[in-house]
Amino acid sequence: RKEVEQDPGPFNVPEGATVAFNCTYSNSASQSFFWYRQDCRKEPKLLMSVYSSGNEDGRFTAQLNRASQYISLLIRDSKLSDSATYLCVVNIPPYKYIFGTGTRLKVLA
Amino acid sequence: DAGVTQSPTHLIKTRGQQVTLRCSPKSGHDTVSWYQQALGQGPQFIFQYYEEEERQRGNFPDRFSGHQFPNYSSELNVNALLLGDSALYLCASSLGASSGNTIYFGEGSWLTVV
What we know:
The complex is a heterodimer.
Chain A: E1 4-6, E2 11-14, E3 19-25, E4 32-38, E5 45-50, E6 55-57, E7 60-65, E8 70-75, E9 84-92, E10 96-99, E11 103-108
Chain B: E1 5-7, E2 10-13, E3 19-24, E4 31-37, E5 44-50, E6 53-57, E7 64-68, E8 74-78, E9 87-94, E10 104-105, E11 109-113
Parallel strand pairs in B: 2-11
Antiparallel strand pairs in B: 1-3, 3-8, 4-5, 4-9, 5-6, 7-8, 9-10, 9-11
């Protein structure tokens, strides 16, 4: 079993749709969690950190469920510019960061 | 505020050769990590440097080695290159004394081994 698993997609959604991605992790010692966005042939960029209480940044909402060991990302009112690969990242103490393979999102006009 | 910078951006090497990639961390950061990203995969952790020492390593062979300098910049060296080493090599920096801090990536170095 992979340490961090994501559905690779692609998710093809129309503009304005709501889309949700899930990510599961296997190491219960995992401490910090993040979502990164990666555009084609570019570096990953931090989208948001994920906190136990859940957090929201504009159209983006992240949730963490430690008991079930999964992380989610919800994107509301999808824009064409949201088309990218979304990477789930888990920090395994002390210093290791494990990335999922990413979920590809394509928002269609 | 300078972000993470890497060089070279693209390079082509022949099997069996050696390569050195360079990274300067984001201003104020003291920790550098290196990742390998093959096409269609997520970045794979190679190792992390803090206070000029390797403090954690992923599942990569000894052909992959690194160094961190007193100014926090870093090098990744790969010896005896294989075709399978062709990938995007990403450097990430963070403020490193504690665990779980956010990491920031450079634009990467595209390595092609022929």
